[in-house]
Records
---
Amino acid sequence: MAQGIAKAPLPDQRNLAWYVDKTVQVLVFVGGISAILLILGIFVFITKEGMGFITQTLDIGEFFTSPNWRPTSENRPTYGALALIAGTASVTGLAMLVAVPFSLGAAIFIGEFATGKTREILKILVEMLAAIPSVVWGFIGLSIMNPLIIDLFNVPVGLNVLNSGLILGLMAAPIMTTLAEDALKAVPDGYREAAEAMGATRWQVIFRVVFPAAKNGLVAAVLLGVGRGFGETMAVLMASGHSINIPTSPFDSVRALTATIAAELGETAVGSDHYRALFTLGIFLFAITFLINLTADLVVRGPRKR
Amino acid sequence: MVTPTRDRQPKVQVRDLSIHYGGKAALAGATFEIHEHEIFGIIGPAGSGKTSFLRAMNRMDLFNPAMEVGGEISMDGKDVRKWKNVYALRRRIGVVFPLPVGLPMSIYENVALAPRLGGTRKRADLDVIVERCLTRAALWDEVKDRLDSLGSLLSGGQQQRLTIARALSQEPELLLLDEFSIAVDPVTTMKIEDVLKELRQELTIVLVTNLVQQARRLADRTAFFLTGELVEVAPTEDLFTGGASDERTTAYVEGRFG
């Protein structure tokens, strides 16, 4: 019997497990690296297509200050992106006015008040909302919101900043809700109990203790929503009216940066000035969303100085 | 050590208190009184219902839907479950949890939070409260030069004293301590114990502890809980000098089990 134990009949399972472990390590490494390579590849691609244009043809001053986007003009094409930037900014701004209170309210309800089944069902529903394709949102903007706005406000066209802002706000709210709720959930329950034990009411606990503790996560949720707003294409294309305009009221139609690329890229000759101008817009968008996401990331990590 | 407690008005009256968690009993049929200006010790091994009693006392049962409370706990003659505004009840009761909870704000704000919530706005008034509470919790000298640094950066023992200062900041009549020394070094524990002895002049203290000797050092009277049963309540000295009426109490305080 003793000999049987001393001489194990099979090699130790862990020898095999060691090879598996090493293989998985390599696979995971490749997976991680490929994400970085892909993002670098995209960056190189859009830069290559757009950069030559920026340095040779484009007047940077005109790009940022002129509202005239006329890349197809026969005698003198102009590439002023100001109206497009204003379009994107106004739609995103209005969207955030809608989405921030909406999503924070929903996150507070789901995270702090709802319990048990209610909470689980709400979370699933919110995540389902986040999965609705943007073209469906655009469709709602086009076929439901458009006549509604025309009737309610007695304006000739219902495809405008108001329409696309509301649509974009509703679109961004679910993902912001989910992120904000995660931030609230990361606050230890001990904080809530300690504050309530001091006689703080539920609202006092939320505003004085939970919000300050979850501040970084909440700001990140909002910033990622802003990033989503800047990058959204289809819904904005369908609901904004797609006319070049610096808006002075919510009922003005506008055109967004993303929508411009989507609408025009198909009809340009590869390598033409127009084609490369659209890539310049792409570089600009890429830079903006990168900055927003980077800010969100830095905010989440928080200032660790003290 | 033994002070005459008979003639004092009971601060807290517990009658036939039973606590269940989803049908499972944590405390059954406990009846006892806590007198004004005494330190009332509660000893017993884990799972004996000590913490459940504290949670029922300041209505923290509301946090846990599975927790059912039967019987009666009265403070100054009024059943705690008859308070419509539970926050007004909790304002009168300070709680110190086993693990210190330094709220994610400055030391100053930790102590000023409750007065602020109560409506005290003037910086000068808050300064007075903060200094007094931190002094009473024996922490002032260590932190007076860095009141603006984060409360959660203090050491465990300091955080626990910060928690006590915070509990005192709303002038409670009753202070509930739940195994406060579990994450605190012995030197700090003795400091806090001295503080508690001082505080007895001003308020009533319920001290839940699983350190039998701590109850002996501090408590005027002590209750022994065992697996959801209140075995007995007696002047602390009696329990430790062979005066316990139940054999199990004697066995526990002598360290033969638990």
---
Amino acid sequence: MTPRERRIEPLDIDALIDDPDTRIVVCCGSGGVGKTTTSAALALRAAERGRTVVVLTIDPAKRLAQALGLSELSNEPGRVEAVAGEGAGQLHAMMLDMRRTFDDMVHAHAEGDRAEKIIANPFYQTVSSSFSGTQEYMAMEKLGQLAATTDWDLIVVDTPPSRSALDFLDAPQRMSNFLDGRMIRLLSSPARAGGRGLRKIVGAGFGLFAKAVSTILGGQFLADASAFVQAFDTMFGGFRERATATYALLRSPGTAFLVVATPEPDALREAAYFVDRLSDEEMPLAGLVLNRTHPVLAPLSAARARAAAESATGQGARLAAAVLRLHADRAELAEREDRLLSRFAGAHPHVAVTRVPAVGGDVSDLESLRSIGDRLAAPDDDLAATPLREAR
Amino acid sequence: MSDVRLHVVSGKGGTGKTTVAAALALALAAGGRRTLLIEVEGRQGIAQVFDTPPLPYEERKIAVAPGGGEVRALAVDVEAALLEYFEMFYRLGVAGRTLRRMGAIEFATTLAPGLRDVLLTGKVKECVSRVRDGKRVYDAVVLDAPPTGRLVNFLDVTKAMADLAKAGPIHKQAEGVVRLLHSPQTAVHLVTLLEELPVTETMEAAEELAAADLRTGAVIVNKVREQWLPDRSVAPAADGRVDAARVRNGLAAAGLDLPPEVVDGLVAETVEHAVRVAAESSAAARLDAATGPDLGRLELPQVLGGIDLGSLYELADTLTEQGVGVRHTDEVPA
């Protein structure tokens, strides 16, 4: 096929959120690309188009949180009033409290005394508040809880602000490996755990390693960790079962992933990794949301605009020169953004795309969320006309 | 910044901190100096900025600076760093590699998140203070640090040490790291954009740094865009008031006879430009009010075509013009 025949497929956001079969929308992407705003705008739009929606946000900026009625961490959905329009449904919003979600999980899987013992363990406190991956794990757990009720016909999930979009998929597995206790048993009593085969391979090295770790971390630390893992052992099966069930939920046809990016090489690279990963895992990708683009509103080349700005004289010349120069900058920026997008699309020709032009100023009230929603859903004729470039 | 040997560069995600760190390392190497650019998040961001293959865990020359200087780069791998320590104090031999394959090393570093940070900052400190033939190996070290959300946790090694045994080799080294980070030899630079959220995060980070007794060096405003409209026109234009007839006349005088819808498009772009400029000035005003005159301020322009090696040198020049450079000697104080 020649590039001329291949086109970027536009992503129809309204078709996605109006479809009653769409039960879960997960917004993924690297940090700083606008995932939270996209999730909130999408949820508001879906609610105003008639669905009963809950949006799970992770760490919204203060003013956006206020606009959604999330003045404090509640860990339970609260209704957002002011959802407007004829035939409007409902919007509920919540903010993930990872510590409380973890505590609730422990209580659900262990009876009174043992749960308290686990929660009081200093090592539990580290794991539940600062282990990298806990946030992702808890976001998935909360999603599982929300999906287990019949209260919502659409759940929109924002994902934690990790460096890499893949963390959302990998963290639960990592957490699970971490908690299954094999390593900690190896470290705390290497003589008994691990089996002879393992000891044979690693030889005396493991004993030394265990000694080194305990010298560095301190005996108390390992003792706490070990006590935690033992107490955790019986409930671990339940934990893993839930994580597995949620993972299966993510692969079900009612789920749609939206990959969010900005027209920057790093963000698009992360988006590309994520798209490939979803396809490996057979997880359903709805498309790419490209935030903060700068499309030109007047078809005039940058070079021509700059040349004309130089020769402007007479009445209105200063104003016209300023207008031409700001247009030329914008045209150059737009050209770069198109280049980046078409390179992405060249390598991923089946990914539908919607572009969201940048808004001046901050998105911090429902009105500006609505306007983002309009931009998300607006038909993008230029996009359909953008030829794909071969990936470099 | 002339006494500073360790420049820590952080910022909210998306502000371009890696690019700024790279430009800073180049600027500090100007005039025959040698600098080291370090990354610690396993992101291979430096390789991407300099358009080179992924960096191994070793110091490599990555660029030549104007006037004969040199920039080296290091991507610290936390698991390799831990093994390095173990090798120093315990002879693990080949078991080290097997342990790593089993995930034991990763496990040890996730077991105590503080250990990770102590190892990473420990490696940074070793580079800053390394001496050969009575001279410092590096005139300056630039650390591409974690984003502002995790920054203070990362640098607050004293707190991280609570995770570790009260004695032992790593503990001792961590004490040295604490001394370096809280000394005038270290400055933390915060990269921001003139937008609401990055400015808010920068202000919060500056407060947190002060509370943790860490010194903020400069606020580096990145991707500063050209303002083409005269100041007095910005407010009305941001309100939608652009004199379209005047624009049309001016364009015609410049030899551009454009159809009305194109002129409308240009006017709409002008309004958006003005809205953005107004938002940027109010963000700048908030930054001024919050940071006061004590903090240095550096500015870097937006590169419309995207960052490549050439534009990195231009950014470095811009920093040099704003007074960035190494002035201290490389003699080791007695």
